[in-house]
Amino acid sequence: MEKYVYTFGGSEAEGNTTMVNTLGGKGANLAEMCQIGVPVPAGFTIITDVCNLYYENDGNYPEGVTEQVDNALRYMASVMGSTFGDPQNPLLVSVRSGARKSMPGMMETVLNVGLSPKTMEGLIKKTGNPRFVYDAYRRLITMYADVVMEKAAGMEPEEGQGIRLLLEEMMEELKKEKGYALDSDIPADELKTLCDGYKAKIKEVLGSEFPDDAMAQLWGAVGAVFKSWNGKRAVSYRRIEGIPEEWGTAVNVQSMVFGNMGENSATGVAFTRNPATGENEFYGEWLTNAQGEDVVAGIRTPFAINAHSINAANEELPTMELKYREIYKQLLDIRDKLEAHYHDMQDVEFTVQEGRLWMLQTRVGKRNGPAAVRMAVEMCREGMIDEETAIMRVMPSQLDELLHPMIDPATEGRYTPLALGLPAGPGGGSGKIVLTAERAEELAEAGEKVVLVRAETSPEDVHGMHVSQAIVTAKGGMTSHAALVARGWGKTCVVGCGALDINVSKGTVTVDDTVLKEGDIVTVNGTTGNIYVGELPLIVLDPEKNELLSTFLGWCDEKRRLGVRTNADRPEDAEQARRFGAEGIGLTRTEHMFFGEERILAMREMILAEHVEEREKALAKLLPYQRADFKGLLTAMAGLPVTVRLLDPPLHEFVPHEKELIEELAEAIGKDVDEVNARIEQLTELNPMLGHRGCRLGISYPEVTRMQARALLEAAAELKQEGIDARPEIMVPLVGNHKELADQKALILEVAEEVKREKGLDELHFLIGTMIEVPRAALTAFEVAAEAQFFSFGTNDLTQMTCGFSRDDSGSFLPGYVKKGIYGADPFQSIDQEGVGQLVDIATERGRERNPSLKVGICGEHGGDPASIAFFDRVGLDYVSCSPFRVPIARLAAAQASIQK
Amino acid sequence: MEKYVYTFGGSEAEGNTTMVNTLGGKGANLAEMCQIGVPVPAGFTIITDVCNLYYENDGNYPEGVTEQVDNALRYMASVMGSTFGDPQNPLLVSVRSGARKSMPGMMETVLNVGLSPKTMEGLIKKTGNPRFVYDAYRRLITMYADVVMEKAAGMEPEEGQGIRLLLEEMMEELKKEKGYALDSDIPADELKTLCDGYKAKIKEVLGSEFPDDAMAQLWGAVGAVFKSWNGKRAVSYRRIEGIPEEWGTAVNVQSMVFGNMGENSATGVAFTRNPATGENEFYGEWLTNAQGEDVVAGIRTPFAINAHSINAANEELPTMELKYREIYKQLLDIRDKLEAHYHDMQDVEFTVQEGRLWMLQTRVGKRNGPAAVRMAVEMCREGMIDEETAIMRVMPSQLDELLHPMIDPATEGRYTPLALGLPAGPGGGSGKIVLTAERAEELAEAGEKVVLVRAETSPEDVHGMHVSQAIVTAKGGMTSHAALVARGWGKTCVVGCGALDINVSKGTVTVDDTVLKEGDIVTVNGTTGNIYVGELPLIVLDPEKNELLSTFLGWCDEKRRLGVRTNADRPEDAEQARRFGAEGIGLTRTEHMFFGEERILAMREMILAEHVEEREKALAKLLPYQRADFKGLLTAMAGLPVTVRLLDPPLHEFVPHEKELIEELAEAIGKDVDEVNARIEQLTELNPMLGHRGCRLGISYPEVTRMQARALLEAAAELKQEGIDARPEIMVPLVGNHKELADQKALILEVAEEVKREKGLDELHFLIGTMIEVPRAALTAFEVAAEAQFFSFGTNDLTQMTCGFSRDDSGSFLPGYVKKGIYGADPFQSIDQEGVGQLVDIATERGRERNPSLKVGICGEHGGDPASIAFFDRVGLDYVSCSPFRVPIARLAAAQASIQK
Question: Does residue A592 carry a catalytic annotation?
Fold first, then answer.
């Protein structure tokens, strides 16, 4: 018989942490905690395979599961000393999901399972606390009706609506009627009556009876958890996070322990290190006489667990360190035990039931970027992990946060905050206030920056949160939904900002006398919790001055095989990138150099020229500008290669298209307006992307190539004479046929000879190579490589042509494609490995076959995408080139790619 | 010692026709003629290797050549009875080039070599004709100065300028001065003086003496011929014809015989069969007392050789058959001997010197299309060749001539073309100029013949195009809209005729100083690209009534492996193609069915719909039209497959773009003009070729696919019930990812089930497949083939995306590319085998690997191109599909491909 159920508890367990695929993250960790002697309420895990079998068999369980569950319940009884469903000494259980990867809030949970009129009396006798028991019963009925029964009845009300709302309204009415301020003011007998009312309401609305039977409740809850694996929220979360459907979820059934059994009971969540800063300090929140939900939900302001965890909101409240000194000491021991065991920061849930500490969960804690880097470096220095592990601990996207904007501290002091909340996600962000996730998406799609302001957030808001510059909530604590999600994404976030009065229907946010409307701009400081009206200047950290980061990236550099260059058109960008660790320029777009008043005029003269001589005259005016630009770039990158791409865009991008501007131009260059119009008309193309551009220009107008080659080589020659080590690499764009490259190469070599002669140089070092961006070039790479010293994949254009998508026009269908799963990700963001990647692979192999010394790199947008970088490493490219701010990310991604290989 | 020199003459020869690579075509044929007993003036050939060695050794000959030439001259003397350079009995020689392949007029020739004051007296004595001798001397000096001396002096005057012109002017002056009308009026003594004047002028202009020495002349002439192998004309001809430089040319030195030694001398050219009709009749022209040049140059009107050769120009002149009865009989014998030997029609040159017949040259004769077919079939029937040889004897392009009305070649030469464009649709057409499609329809309805002249055409013009005799555009290339549509209909078309300045509002077409008005008559030659003012006579051949052609194509069908289908959108076209031998439809473009007044309105309603229901309502209006169209096509092709492509072009091609038309449309469909404008604006794309089109439309709007599938399957179901064997194949366009095809396939299968249910059918036969036109689809063909029953290569789009050329925009650079040899041919006309072909190969192999029963065809323009067809045969495709008028061509090309394999 297949083993479907694994027990844990009482310092032993059938599973362990290596079985995460079978037991899910939570189950594996609970088992592991038992194994290492951490006090965990006994329970068992129904494995993930059962989830798949459940779906395959139309909601039936495979043979043996029932029996194994019964055995496991007997085991729990033996460890906990009370028995599930026993009227005298009943054990209550929680039923929770647990996938391989945590999917917080995406699946269902039912607590207090096993409570019914049959078992209630025994529990009352045992606890001597009828109010607690009826309250637990009330909670069970509410949760069970919502999670199990409503779904079973085929009803799908809006979130927050439905049976749960109806039941909660009943309690609110009771409180109003009796004048009770708090839930806890309701006495036991009234709770009892309320529970009866609940059950009647459920019968009325859902058409079936609440099951007052422990086993029925248990199986109802287990089924609801399995079903929730394919609920809307879970499915959409999986799509975003790339979690395969076939992983399935496990179900964890665990003995309930209660933090709400009075003042010597408590519950809390904690991180073994500070997840926002990475400091090696125990960090957490707790509440006395509360259930775990209460801490997370943000209804009561949680207390700090210790001095380190104190913030503005809880500084008046007691810490566990002071109030429950002994228990805190136990917790601190467990913290050390867990870190020593897991070699990573843990996120734990604990409950104190009548003075006894129980650990309910441990898992690897989420952390923001700065914290991830700090923990990785410090744990490595502490000897807890090695460098490779440290490198794998930081997600490339997390580095973004370090490089991400923050409010300029130099000027922030001049502004008066509108309000202060909890600093849940560091960094700074500005944008228009939006009050709903939908509106956030709308404006963001229209290219607006937005700040999402909500009373609190729920999993339904994640899309809107994702597109926002910052997230602000009026309610909630540091471990509220908003805080967790924002930190996961490295997004600026302030929570629990009680001063905000949000009115969604009116579209206003009021703070005292200040009324802000949707669309007004605010700036959020997620590091301090301050919120400002208006747009404050943001700055970006200098990673060079961040010792932890530079140490970390230093380790990355030691491990990676792939070189990292940058795409830069200006010396400032090149310098910035060099500070970020760029090892050269992989792409300089020369066309950007043609804008600017005098340059564009000369450029237009060149374009409108009627014969070679006129064109050459105009080009002669451009030459000194180009040469100076090139000198700047080559100097900024002295000693490192600088790849310069020859003129690429179609010429019509350089000419004006409005009547007045055309007239002005005609006058400025002394031509007839009709003539200018005619030429501009002639330049118009139906599909400019596939038109007269790239090396096709240089072949039609060799004088353009000559001018650009001359400007670059003169710059290099002059720098050489000045003692600066300039290393130009001339890149011919849009080659599809090796003869195009041969044609342009011949011109460049001719110019090089001229320049050497004129400058009196015996030697001038430079390379000639080509972009591989036309599918034909990739397919005929063997021939092209005979003419090239390097290849650089232009994966943007290569994607456009290989997939047949115009980047400019794909907005009308590509998002739909990604949604439908036709492409796993937007192929312009992460390289399409099956299609475009195949060409990269083919071209690299054939190119090197012909020319073993061929340097091969990539300079498209994909050069900064971690998944793409791993692919390029696998294919064996020499380097990636990306925008300056992605250079550190590329260094990390390249290191991770090496390690994973 | 290497043998460099091969002699021939006197019924024997050292070489033969198999040695064409060594001796060149002319030399090998002269040798071969001797071998078979044809009277040839004795001579020798210096082999092609010497040409290469001459260049390798800086103009020096390899050791032994001089000695071998001396021996050969001795051999000639022994055969001819006179000796080169002998003052008493001198032999004169011609020095001519002779490459492996004929390069007519591209290299140099010197005649009368060996004549000088030393040998002149002997010749005068021998011939008794001093005038003849001085005239020969004059010709030698002129030719030698031009061909040998001017080049040696390093002068390169324009063609027709230089020393030749100066000398000719001297003679003209003399004639003027003395009042002579003809060259032949100049008496011997004045010719003598003129020759002295020539020599003085040469000394003056070129700085060196004319060599009055036989051997010096001989070597000078030989060197000039070798040098001319790398002359400008020869090099550019070789590039166009694809002749490798390393082939080199041979030099033929041959005894001069003179047709200008009086009235019992003559010269002529003849074809062993009529090259214009193919009739098995000896055909030729001749002149008495003339040199060969005189016949070809057209200064005198040549006589007919026999009754068969008489035409309007020579009917009053004597025939050889009558005048030189005996010689003619000899010539007729030789004609039979040559055809029997060469098994092909020969083109011969002959000279009669004082009553003795000499053959100077034989080679395979050029012929036009009708003649090629007739000769091939008749020679096969005569037992001269077998069927395979017959098939190889007709060039596919020659069949074109049989299928289209053409300008009568007998008279076309008398007219001067107005302008030259690209020959996009072969044949000839005359009619009144019209500048709009509407005007074309108007006049055509009134019974007028019209020629539509546009800057370029769009789908809105198709009706006007259809009623025109010919279409001319100022812009666009060989695969522009106009070219594609015209070829599909077998209509005469010239595109990209940049010389035309079209002014629609004034109703004029201007070419330089010529201003044509709407209504003026022009004639268009779509085979050459020439446009003439006025009406030129046309001739037509009816292929069905042409027994020879149908026999010939029958043989082709027996030999070919490739299937041949047609691209057809209308039943008439399908029927036409079926008559031409099409074995099904490879491509029906459904979008053409959406034009027509009511249809386009429903189509526009569909496009402008705001939600699915509105869209479905509009589609419901289109459905009956489509179904009726499909029934027509399926009926026309009953028993044969009909491939229908789902909607392909971007939607903006269906909406109006002019203000007035937009307003009309808004009113017609009851929408706000602003709304309509906004939607049209939204449809505009930067690169529509790579935009929202093809299956992307069907994925965004599944209801469109559903309507089309329903129309086709309902048509098939109804025909089945009527007892007609309908075989639809549904083709999903622009697939790049197998999931796109899977998506569309699921929709179609759903519709099929519905239709079967509704029609009460148990079975409905149809296939689902895809165009392979996106490079990614080719690269991932293994996956795509899992969803497809057939692949059909859309090589037009595949070429656009693989090479990165927009067909519409490539006119600005592609012609230059072909000129520079970057592409051997326009890749839109003949498939780019190295690049695009590689994808065809990959996709076919991978597709069949996954799905061995996959049918693979091609439906792009290349399906009608012979070189491409040979490639597709090699790759192993199942069929090609081309426009109806190219079906016979494809049948032939496919047969030739099979035979060559």
Answer: no
